[in-house]
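Give me structure tokens for this 257-residue protein.
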Amino acid sequence: MVKRLLTSVKVILIGALLALTLTGCGGEAAENSYPLESITQNGQQQSKVYRAENKTVPQVAEELRQQEEPKEISKTDTERMFLVYPDKWYHLQKDPKKPEDTLIEISNNEFVRQNYSPSFLEGYILASVLGNLFDSHKRYDGKYRGYTERDIYKPKTTYHTPTAQEKKVTPPITTQGSGSIIKRSDRPSSTSNSGNTSVGTNESTTKKGKIVKSSDEGALYNQRKEVKPSSSDFSRPQSNSPPRVSSGGSGKITKRR
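Here you go.
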């Protein structure tokens, strides 16, 4: 009895492991991976750069936004965009050496605070968000403007190609979906004009009309004759028998009351 029970448990565990393996394989096929390309770290400052091949800055921004909604996002731009989260900043930049690709620079708050220029970020991010990051009582002399301009506006730390160990510790970014942008104008309207029937794709909300051919007019007329009014203002005659004629010879017709 015990042996049979152990065999059943083994079969169940093997089946569960196979199901998890298959699910994982299916997920890999549906994900887009952005490999780690460059990294820098100095004390509490950390920044990592990933590459999104053959994708524009707005496309990558929309993919990342759908995966995790930022608390602040800059206006749509084909050259540069920012996505701000509570503990990290995404700086998306078109690669000048390979314009069809987008570089994704992910920096923690300390790196942004120590390297970026607040005056530069004011052109993309609300002042209230910058005020929470940069202490107005302190002076910040960073001139950094992103990874693509690191040779001109140098950060206080140096980027390097990640080692095998660093790649192992920092896996690629994976995002669900194809990353296609859905414009607001392409989304179905949730409201309709008064008096009009809303249009939907659900078959239960679609009404179909019927065309009556001329040969069916007689049948349609007979159907109309059988329709009885539902209003209480109409009353049915008391009798349909012919009027009574008196036998006095006067020929006067007396209607039954």
